[in-house]
Structure formats: structure tokens, C-alpha cells
Amino acid sequence: MNDMVTYVTDLAKLKICKQMADFDEYCTLPGHSCPVNVVQFSSDGNFIVSSGDDGQVLICNLWRKKVDQVLKTHQGPMVGVEWIQQLESIRVVTSGADGTIKLWKKASTMMGTLTFQFVSVHLLFENPIENSALDGGHQLFAACGGGHVATVAIDLDR
Fold first, then answer.
1. Which residues pair with 24 in a beta bridge?
2. What is the pLDDT of residues 62-112, one digit of tens each?
3. Which residue pairs from 86-92 have beta carbons closer than 8 angstroms and sit at least 24 positions apart in sequence?
4. Sign of the C-alpha dihedral, residues 28, 33, 34, 38?
5. 32-52 residues labelled b (16+ CB within 10 A) or e (exposed)
6. Residues in a beta bridge with 58
7. Is it the case that residue 149 has pLDDT exceeding 90?
8. Cα 150 to Cα 157: distance, rounded to the nearest angstrom
């Protein structure tokens, strides 16, 4: 019983700490019509990419506080989105419950607006991808689904 009381007391302290935390809201970006599953910052911190159950990826410009582009990427929920930036080359890798991964590359930057174009698709699993990750060197992409883990090399020269 004492353990239960300690837990509740600690939880109450946690709630008080959260209320006293010093956070300032920067911006809220609308755009998804369903729950958002993944959010990633660009490596330079200027953009956010988000993916959700609506099968879309939103490319959001944090400086302008608006959505630059909506990519209609997958049939069904999105489970992953990764931002790859090497100098001026920018890629986005998406993964979905449809079992596919897709590669997108920067098409243009005009007046601060960033747009992407589709490059390729790869069916990784017959069942849904459940989670995904990118290695630190941006060369390998890993995904899991149906009790399996698969890795693929990313061709950044495409």
C-alpha cells in the first residue's frame, strides 16, 4: 500500500513540475486530418516533417510558421518519416502501413518555400511496417513489420 501512495505522490509532484516548467509555445501547424504519428526536425532546425494516419507528410517551414508542401504518400497510416540532409541535397524517406518505403528529394526552394518530388518506392513487407529508423550516417534505413526487421541501403545520388 505504501508503494501505491508513493507512486501517486510522485505522480502529483510530476504534474506540479510540468505546470511550473518554462516552455513557450512557438507555433502550432494545422494540416493533418487524422492523428500524427511521427515528427522530425530537419538537421538545420528550419523545417519539421510530420506524418500521420491520413497517409500524408507535411513539410513545415518553422521560420514562416506555415506548411510548404503536403505529400500524399501512402495508402493508409504513415509510421515513419526521416529527414536526410547533406549540404544542399535533401531527401525524405517515408514508411507506411502499406508495407512500402518511399524516397523523396528536394525539387526546389523558391522564396523560402521548400518542395519535394517523388523518386522511388520499395515494397519492404507484405504486412504493415510498424516502426522505422535511419542510421547516423544516413546510408541505411531499417524497418520492422510482421516479426521481421529489414535494412535497405539508400542511394542518395538518385
1. none
2. 888 888 888 888 788 888 999 998 877 899 999 999 999 999 999 877 777
3. 86/138, 86/156, 89/156, 90/42, 90/114, 90/116, 91/119, 91/154, 91/156, 92/49, 92/57, 92/59, 92/116
4. negative
5. beeeebbebebeeeebbbbbb
6. 50, 70
7. yes
8. 22
pLDDT at 35: 86
- Written in H, E and C, the secondary structure of the chain is CHHHHHHHHHHHHHHHHHHHCCCCCCCCCCCCCCCEEEEEECCCCCEEEEEECCCEEEEEECCCCEEEEEEECCCCCEEEEEEEEECCEEEEEEEECCCEEEEEEEEEEECCEEEEEEEEEEECCCCCCCEEEECCCCCEEEEEECCEEEEEECCCCC
Residue with cell 542510421: 135
